[in-house]
Every structure is written in C-alpha cells, then in structure tokens.
UniProtKB/TrEMBL annotation:
One of its GO terms (molecular function) is oxidoreductase activity, acting on the CH-OH group of donors, NAD or NADP as acceptor. CDD domains: PGDH_like_1. This is D-2-hydroxyacid dehydrogenase family protein. SUPFAM superfamilies: Formate/glycerate dehydrogenase catalytic domain-like, NAD(P)-binding Rossmann-fold domains. Keywords: NAD, Oxidoreductase. Belongs to the D-isomer specific 2-hydroxyacid dehydrogenase family. The lineage of its organism: Bacteria, Bacillati, Actinomycetota, Actinomycetes, Pseudonocardiales. Residues 20-309 form the D-isomer specific 2-hydroxyacid dehydrogenase catalytic domain.
Length: 316
C-alpha cells in the first residue's frame, strides 16, 4: 500500500503516530503543491491520501487522474469543502475524517486579540531593533466583544472575554436568546453586533450562507477603532472590501489567521499593512491536535484494510 501525507509543513507526521504498524510505503509531502497536474503526477499509485484539512483541494478533475486511490482521510472533523466527496463516492473512493480539538483555535483567537489591542508585533520589533515604547495600547475591561457564531469555539472565546470583564454579545442566523443566555451572552442582531462591538470575532462554518458575510456594508457599520478577528475561514470576509477598509483606516485593524488564498502569496497587500496582525492559519496547529489527526488517520487506514467500519464523511 502506498500512502501519501499531504502538506505536513513541519515534517512531524511520522513522529506523531505509529505509521510503521501499517507496513506501508508512506510518502510525506512537506511542501504545498498547488499545480493540479504536478500533484496528480506526484500522487500516482497512491491508494491512500491523508489531507491536512483544506490545505490542498481534491476536486473531481484531480480524483479522475488517480485510478489507484481508494481512501481519502481528511483531518479535522466531518467537514471539508475542498474535497469533492460526491465525485469520490462515484469513483468508489471512501472519504473518512479524523477527530478534532476545538480549544487551540479559541486560544489563538485570544493571542490575536491581545496582540492587536496592545500592539505586540510592533513593540516586539522595536525591542529587537534597539527601541523602546512606540504606542499606547487599549484595555479590554468594559469593552464589548461581538461573536459571529456561538458554537463550541465561540462559546470558549466568550468565556475568556467575560473573564477579562468584557460585555459579550453574539449573532448567528439560528442563534436564540435562550441559547446565548446559556453562555451568559446576549443575542443581538448582526447590525447591532457590528455597530456596538470593539472586537468582532468570526466563529462560523464556511458555507454558501456565510461566504462573503462580512463585506463593505458590514465593515462600514463597525466602529472606526474596532478590530475584526478571523480564525474561522478566510472567504467569510470579503477580502477586497477588508483591504479597502484597512487602507482607508475605516476600522481599527484586522487580526487574521485565515485567508481567501492559502498559503497567502508573498506579495499580498495584507502583508504590508501596518494595522494588521497576521498568522499563517495556525489556529489548530498544536501537538495535541496533530496527535489526534495522525493517530486517527492510522486507525482509519488499518480499519479500511481490514474492512472494518471507519468515520465516513456523508455524501452531499
């Protein structure tokens, strides 16, 4: 059996699970391959592909070029819009998924918020360059934290905000006042959330309804000193509209871990804007999460070979 592990940027996959127990030929791809023809060539003969979440799309056109493929394992839970699950099913390819831990992304959300309001990136650079204090930070106590989405991740972020003494409000299309109250959060309209929040943080699943949810009109409703934080998915925010708002300083800034195109191009204008805090989609990149991903992947491959049940993604 030939197994391909995609997008292992840190080259840690083989050390975090017992791949040797499979007795298979395992190839690790540490660099992202964006060209579909090149990817098809490199994956030729692979019976199993382990995909790191949505880093590499696996569309129908690519799957058609991989006749030996029998199993795709998507790390990170039962959703992956970058895999054409229907096309895989039509070709007899099983698509399974691993478990996931939500708390690391919530932790990174707060790393970004604190870095943004206290100017940590600029102050840190100044220290390394021999300087000292540059600006004046903003406190969080008494401020308003607006959560777009109050699921498992959003609720964790809300609890930390409450510990800082923040007012917490939330909106999503199906959020009720009763559900929000379970987390000591007030449910509000989207318009109220955007206009009243000092920090707007995104915790929604990417779907047809949420794609482009935050556009020019929504950004215009935010306070001129408010920060937008996104650790969910890049396309939920209209990138062009966000760039305009940042350049014209119509909002305080944006702290982003996710982007419309990933990896973010080296010359992308977001990289040069001073009112941004940027991280390379590391919300889930912790040892604990990766151990779950690769352990479950090995278990699924062993079960697949044995004809035993595995965690199969539903076909849309």
């Amino acid at each position: 059996m030939k197994i391909a592990i995609l997008d292992d940027y840190q080259n840690v996959a083989l050390g975090l699970a017992d791949w040797a127990s499979l007795g298979a030929d395992v190839e690790v791809f540490t660099e992202h391959i964006g060209d579909q023809d090149e990817l098809a060539r490199r994956l030729a003969g692979a019976e199993v592909v382990v995909a790191m979440r949505e880093r590499t799309p696996l569309p129908a056109e690519l799957l058609a070029k991989l006749p030996d493929l029998g199993l795709i394992i998507s790390t990170g839970g039962p959703r992956n819009p970058s895999i054409d699950i229907k096309a895989a099913a039509e070709r007899g390819v099983v698509v399974s998924h691993t478990g996931y831990l939500p708390h690391p992304a919530a932790e990174l959300t707060w790393a970004l918020i604190l870095a943004a309001v206290r100017g940590v990136p600029a102050e840190e650079r100044s220290m390394r360059e021999g300087g000292w204090q540059l600006g004046i930070g903003t406190g969080l106590h008494g401020r308003t934290l607006g959560l777009l989405g109050l699921g498992r991740l959003g609720a964790k972020v809300a609890r930390v905000g409450q510990a800082f003494g923040m007012r917490t409000i939330a909106w999503s299309q199906n959020l009720t006042a009763e559900k929000a109250a379970e987390h000591d959060v007030t449910a509000v309209s989207k318009e109220q959330l955007l206009s009243e929040s000092d920090i707007v943080t995104v915790h929604l699943v990417l779907s047809r309804r949420s794609r482009g949810l935050i556009g020019a009109a929504e950004l215009a409703q935010m306070k001129p000193d408010a920060w937008l934080v996104n650790t969910s998915r890049g396309p939920i925010v209209d990138q062009d509209a966000l760039l305009d708002a940042l350049r014209e300083r119509r909002i305080g800034g944006a702290a982003l871990d996710v982007f419309e195109q990933e990896p973010l191009p080296a010359d992308h204008p977001l990289r040069s804007l001073p009112n941004t805090v940027l991280t390379p989609h590391i919300g889930y990149v912790t040892r604990e999460v990766y151990e779950v991903f690769y352990r479950d992947a090995v278990e699924d491959i062993a079960a697949y070979r044995a004809g035993a049940p595995i965690r199969v993604m539903p076909v849309p």
